[in-house]
Amino acid sequence: MSQISTSRDEPVIQPLIGPSARHRTRKVLVAWGDQKVWIGGDAPVVVQSMTNTDTADAIATAIQVKELALAGSEIVRITVNTPEAAREVIAIREQLDRMGISVPLAGDFHYNGHKLLTQFPDCAQALSKYRINPGNMGGGKKRDDNFAQMIEVACRHQKPVRIGVNWGSLDHELLARMMDENVKLAQPRDGRAVMRDALVVSAISNAERAQELGLPGDAIILSCKVSHVQDLIAVYRDLAARCDYPLHLGLTEAGMGSKGIVASTAALSVLLQEGIGDTIRISLTPEPGGDRTREVIVAQEILQTMGLRAFTPMVVACPGCGRTSSTVFQELADRIQTYLREQMPLWKTQYPGVESMNVAVMGCVVNGPGESRHADIGISLPGTGEVPSAPVFVDGERTVTLKGDHIAEEFQKIVQDYVARRYGAHAR
């Protein structure tokens, strides 16, 4: 906290702006070839996603992985649930390599992962990380044996593991035991609180068991997935306080459309602000025919709007009001935002630093000129009844006024020239 003085009273405590320091965790490497993604430690928060194709269809899966990777997913998870799927993992990896897509693949295993990883060693090697759900591996000794088999394969192939527990498939024996113990307390806790505690205990105890079996501590990531915002926040606060493994954040079954986006943003933003979380995935249910890459964009926008990372130039646009009956500013804002995102696969190598650029597309004279001046480059379009001209501001200075029927094309060209001039090789 910092202090500011006042003329008549005691100093007022002024809170520091920004997220809390990151929770200290181990650092895990997820890699394929020369592509290295670090999770935890001092590494930036990593964006992940997951395909929804049938993994046995190698071509369709490789195409979707490519789309997700180009959108900015730094690790892509694929379902490995059948022998047919496991058999095709190597073909998917080879297809991606031929396309120049080196994004690491994580295999998602449930129920029969111990068999698939053992029976298909090429699959085990082609994957860069395994996701294991201890709650879906049987019970008693069978569960212990199956878990041990998967950890032994991870050790053999030197692959990191995410131990991901989920309240929809929590270890029933563990939960029953903890519920029984809770009933015997003088003041029993709420059943939901016991379930949250069971998630944390399951994750940490399985991580410790994996280390006993030989998996290095810096090859383990944990997650505790629930589908309600307050439960997720409570679980991860507890998990972060009780271990130093890197944590994967995500609200499971978040939902469709705005509900899923709002719920995920509400939960993850609180945790990220508190310095909790090393990698995130936004589990959105796509609308029929919807684009799977939307979950990647939402994850990036959460991190960028919080100031934790920068992925693509941000577009500031006004919401519109009675002064803006024209849709020109809406269409231009959408066009520029789409254009900037589409350019990023090339620009991120050609124009380092461009991801931090801010662009303003405003709809009338009220806030338009001011917002445009605050941005790196901005345009203030005419509102209802205003002079049909659009002043453009570059680095805070008014440079040109656009008029006529080609304002969109002309402004896009100004943006292109600005990017090349400011972020090109000659600018460094």
Structure description:
The chain has 428 residues and is an alpha/beta fold. 43% of the residues lie in helices and 19% in strands. The protein has 13 helices and 19 strands. The strands form five sheets. The chain has an eight-stranded parallel sheet with strand order 10-9-8-7-6-5-13-11. β5 (46-50), α1 and β6 form a beta-alpha-beta unit. α1 (58-71) packs across α2 (83-98). The protein is globular. The mean pLDDT is 93.
Compute the average pLDDT.
93
The end-to-end distance, rounded to whole angstroms, is 36 Å
Number of beta-strand segments: 19
What spatial order of strands do you see in the largest sheet?
A: 10-9-8-7-6-5-13-11
> How helical, in percent, are the residues?
40-55%
The chain-level structural class is alpha/beta
Biggest beta sheet attributes? 8 strands, parallel
> Unreliable stretches, pLDDT < 50, 5 or more residues?
none
- Report Rg: 25 Å
Principal-axes geometry comes out as globular
State which percent range the strand residues make up: 15-25%
Number of helices: 13
